[in-house]
């Protein structure tokens, strides 16, 4: 399947299929505008070696011998230091402006390698090869790249430093999901639910119902289901990004994709959290799932969504077997302070994306503290 991300300046294709990592060389060659003589392959140490070899061989067969650099991903290594290390490795490999970076891994590797591609010599092409469901349906598409900023005692601030840098192509091979730990597969489904909650106007009004009906097949790694899941979610994201590539629209636009994320970013790097007795940290997708419940509860508390809506969202999250509550959440004022630091804040105002229960969402500046508190209380175990 091919999904076109039809941006005015930098359009590209997202290839979705089974066994297509063997075509990365060919796809990269076709996507490049200039002659390249080599590639820099940033890999994720969690990806099976066979997949890495397939990609390296495919690139070499197309005249792009690779220099490799492996990252063991975690939010703690998604830093300027790791970014710096990649740039140094690229420079040592004599990477030139026409040569592509190929990012093979989850969202963390994609974000760091994408940012390195954006910065190296003021920008070299990047081909994203996402290997987690979350990276396939979300992180690899749309051109946001970033690392976290460590503010010492003030904590790790998610994706605080980065760039918009659209990939030249994306290759999502659903076969590689076979080795993904089930917990990460579920985390990816949280971003799918996020898309489904806001896509009524995006030519795919039935996405929520379709996901609801196919959760079990997706979790059982049914190939055709995964391909459709990825392609429909990429299409939804592509339509939003096309209308607002740089997230500048005052209302709606790309900001809608932050549904659940202001809550999620505030809690996902917090120490001391427990889910069902298991110590944190939470996965990004797990935090997003909790964020969807908090946002829908906040929305309902403000009368923007029907009273039964938060319960429906929580039920979907539970069906995916994602956590619907978390233990050890700090007192509300502390979480609020972290939310206020969110990079989506404008002119000091906290802006929350609140789903209205009809497949749409609204962006609300400075919602009442009581409504946010209701949202946080809904996910507090
Ligand atoms: N740029 C964007 O638009 C965007 C959007 C959403 C999320 N993100 C970012 O993405 C990150 C989360 O990404 P993620 O959920 O992919 O997590 P991740 O990158 O940490 O990967 C999850 C785990 O799976 C392992 N892994 C990856 N592929 C595998 C495979 N095929 N088989 C076995 N193990 C595999 C990794 O080594 C890692 O341990 C966050 O940092 C988030 O901020 C970015």
What does this structure look like?
Helices cover 43% and strands 18% of the residues. The mean pLDDT is 95. It has 13 helices and 13 strands. It has a 7-stranded mixed β-sheet, sandwiched between helices. The chain has a two-stranded antiparallel ribbon with strand order 7-8. Nicotinamide-adenine-dinucleotide (NAD) binds next to helix 4, helix 5, strand 8, helix 6 and helix 10.
Give a quick precis of the structure.
This protein has 381 residues and is of the alpha/beta class. It has helices at 24-31, 49-61, 80-92, 107-119, 133-139, 182-198, 207-219, 223-243, 261-268, 284-301, 309-319, 332-340, 369-379; strands spanning 2-5, 12-17, 39-44, 66-71, 101-105, 126-130, 144-150, 156-164, 169-173, 274-275, 278-279, 351-355, 361-365.
Task: Give the strand line-up of the largest sheet.
Answer: 1-2-9-6-5-3-4
Structural class: alpha/beta
The number of E-state strands comes to 13
Give a quick account of the main beta sheet: strands, pairing sense, barrel closure: 7 strands, mixed
Estimate the strand proportion. Answer: 15-25%
Uncertain spans? none
Q: What assembly state would you assign to the polypeptide chains in this entry?
A: single chain
What pattern of helices and strands is seen along the backbone?
Answer: EEHEHEHEHEHEEEHHHHEEHHHEEH
Shape: globular
Q: How far apart lie the N and C ends?
A: 42 Å
Enumerate how many helices there are, as a single number.
Answer: 13
* Rg over C-alpha atoms, rounded to the nearest angstrom: 20 Å
């Amino acid at each position: 399947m091919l999904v076109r991300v039809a941006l005015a300046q930098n359009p590209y294709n997202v290839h979705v299929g089974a066994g297509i990592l063997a075509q990365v060389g060919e796809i990269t060659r076709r996507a490049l505008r200039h002659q390249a003589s080599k590639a820099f392959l940033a890999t994720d140490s969690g990806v099976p070696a066979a997949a890495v070899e397939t990609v390296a061989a495919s690139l070499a067969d197309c005249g792009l011998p690779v220099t490799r650099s492996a990252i063991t991903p975690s939010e703690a290594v998604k830093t300027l230091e790791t970014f710096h290390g990649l740039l140094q490795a690229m420079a040592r490999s004599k990477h030139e402006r026409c040569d592509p970076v190929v990012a093979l891994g989850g969202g963390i590797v994609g974000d760091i390698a994408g940012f390195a591609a954006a910065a190296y010599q003021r920008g070299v092409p990047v081909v994203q090869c996402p290997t987690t469901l979350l990276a396939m349906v979300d992180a690899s598409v749309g051109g946001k790249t970033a690392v976290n900023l460590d503010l010492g005692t003030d904590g790790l601030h998610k994706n605080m430093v980065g760039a918009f840098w659209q990939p030249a192509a994306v290759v999502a091979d659903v076969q590689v999901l076979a080795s993904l730990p089930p917990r990460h597969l579920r985390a990816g489904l949280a971003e799918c639910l996020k898309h489904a909650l806001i896509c009524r106007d995006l030519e795919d009004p039935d996405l929520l119902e379709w996901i609801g009906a196919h959760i079990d097949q997706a979790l059982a790694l049914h190939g055709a289901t995964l391909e459709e899941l990825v392609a429909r979610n990429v299409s939804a994201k592509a339509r939003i990004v096309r209308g607002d590539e740089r997230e500048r629209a005052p209302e709606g636009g790309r900001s809608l994709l932050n549904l659940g994320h202001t809550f999620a970013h505030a809690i996902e790097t917090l120490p001391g959290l427990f889910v069902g007795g298991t110590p944190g940290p939470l996965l990004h997708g797990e935090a997003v799932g909790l964020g969807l419940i908090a946002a829908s509860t906040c929305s309902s508390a403000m009368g923007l969504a029907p009273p039964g809506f938060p319960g429906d969202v929580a039920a979907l999250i539970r069906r995916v077997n994602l956590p619907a509550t978390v233990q050890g959440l700090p007192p509300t004022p502390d979480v609020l302070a972290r939310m206020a630091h969110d990079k989506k804040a404008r002119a000091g105002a906290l802006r929350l994306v609140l789903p209205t229960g009809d497949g749409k969402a609204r962006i609300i500046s400075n919602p009442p503290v009581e409504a946010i508190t209701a949202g946080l209380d809904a996910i507090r175990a």
